[in-house]
Amino acid sequence: MNMRSDGVAAALGYLRDGIVAGRFTPGEKLNQEDIAQALGMSRIPVREALGILAAEGAVEYVKNRGYTVPKISVELLDEIYRMRTLLESDLLRHIHQPSPEEIRDLNDINDRMREAADSGNLADFVPLNRRFHFAVFELGDAPLMTKMIDRLWTLSESYRALYLYDSRNAARSWHEHRELIEALESMDLERCVSISDAHRRSAQDHVRGFLLARQSPAHSIP
């Protein structure tokens, strides 16, 4: 890589991590100057990184305002999760037998999630959660489907952090991950689908409730 591409990669990592961890919240304007200063670089690689994220749907460009973390509606959230259910369930039904090394890697990620949850370090927990799920998806040997799932996750990334930043949800999450690993070890794929469906539905219901509350008349009263 040259210095320019290195800068773009660094800016991409910083912005993606910030959205995943909830440091950048839905509707927040992403100030290019502030981000460049935080990274010790010029605005040029930051602007390029934001353009890449806009193409992915992770941020949006609003005329006369600049780049912002997108807000989503209840209807869009439901569509995202419906599509995720279709793709993820099919992928889980076609995964290969995990090797001992792959099971060990999943357990390692989940152990780190438990440690982060127990210590209240949810800023680390949230990206570890994503890493765990995509390690499972990669067992399906379907890179195109995994890429499409990644896009759907990206569209609702900043809202999923709202669910995982609740310590009770974080604890429930790693418990369910442990059950999923057990099902993977025994290749009980329908149980994998069932656990994953319940896991996903819990997050969707939590975020849906948040969005509905934001839409209520009482919430808009100053």
Structure write-up:
- With 222 residues, the chain is mostly helical.
- The protein has two domains: 3-68, Winged helix-like DNA-binding domain superfamily/Winged helix DNA-binding domain (Arc Repressor Mutant, subunit A, Orthogonal Bundle), CATH 1.10.10; 74-215, Up-down Bundle (Four Helix Bundle (Hemerythrin (Met), subunit A)), CATH 1.20.120.530.
- Helix content is 74%, strand content 3%.
- The protein is built from eleven helices and two strands, in the order αααββαααααααα.
- Strands 1-2 form a two-stranded antiparallel ribbon.
- Strand 1 (60-62) and strand 2 (66-68) form a beta hairpin.
- Helix 2 (32-39) packs across helix 3 (43-56), helix 5 (100-118) packs antiparallel against helix 6 (122-137) and helix 5 (100-118) packs antiparallel against helix 9.
- The longest helix has 27 residues, at 189-215.
- It is globular.
Number of DSSP strand runs: 2
* Beta content: under 5%
Widest sheet: strand ordering: 1-2
Helical residue percent?
Answer: over 70%
Mean pLDDT: 89
CATH class of the largest domain: Mainly Alpha
CATH superfamily of the largest domain, by name, is GntR ligand-binding domain-like
What spatial form do the alpha-carbon principal axes imply? globular
- Counting helices, strands and paired strands, the structural category is mainly alpha
> Please, how many helices?
11
- As an assembly, this protein is single chain
Stretches with pLDDT under 50, minimum 5 residues: 218-222
Terminal-residue CA separation: 50 Å
The largest sheet, given as strand count, sense and whether it forms a barrel, is: 2 strands, antiparallel
Whole-number tally of structural domains = 2
* CATH domain fold name of the largest domain: Four Helix Bundle (Hemerythrin (Met), subunit A)
Q: What is the succession of H and E elements?
A: HHHEEHHHHHHHH
CA radius of gyration: 18 Å
Give the name of the CATH architecture of the largest domain.
Up-down Bundle
Domain HTH gntR-type: 5-72
Keywords: DNA-binding, Transcription, Transcription regulation
GO molecular function, one term: DNA-binding transcription factor activity
InterPro entries: GntR_C (IPR011711), TF_FadR/GntR_C (IPR008920), Tscrpt_reg_HTH_GntR (IPR000524), WH-like_DNA-bd_sf (IPR036388), WH_DNA-bd_sf (IPR036390)
